[in-house]
Amino acid sequence: MKLENVMKARTSWDVVCTVDDLVPESGVAVWTEDGPVAVFYLPHRLPALFAVSHTDPFTGKNVLARGITGDLKGQPVVASPLYKQHFNLQTGQCLEDEEVAVKTYPVLLDGNNVRVEIPATNKESAVA
């Protein structure tokens, strides 16, 4: 009889920067085990922190942290600095193309540290 042992996917809340690294109304690029992530600080909103993939899905370039933040129809957004597509910072959805989205990450403030929840890779192994 063959038994399969599957490790459950886990996440970790990685410290990616500090409050001092944040600039109001803009983003900072951070590196995580899941790749580059853009963390945005919008102090006039609740929640005030957002994290999305730093990679622009239209160009493959890591530029979203340098995008312009704003509000479109009550949605917090970032406009890609390259071709100006808008991405909802809560859902990752592109407002100009409903078939395109960027990955979003839960983010929180822990004292002076900004933490982003990073999914662990799913590893499967078989035990004979």
TrEMBL record:
GO terms for molecular function: 2 iron, 2 sulfur cluster binding; nitrite reductase [NAD(P)H] activity. The keyword Oxidoreductase applies. GO terms for biological process: nitrate assimilation. It holds the Pfam family Rieske_2. Residues 12-117 form the Rieske-like [2Fe-2S] domain. Keywords: Nitrate assimilation, Oxidoreductase. PROSITE patterns: NIRD. It comes from the Bacteria. Coiled coil: none annotated. This is Nitrite reductase (NAD(P)H) large subunit, NirD. It comes from Marinobacter algicola DG893.
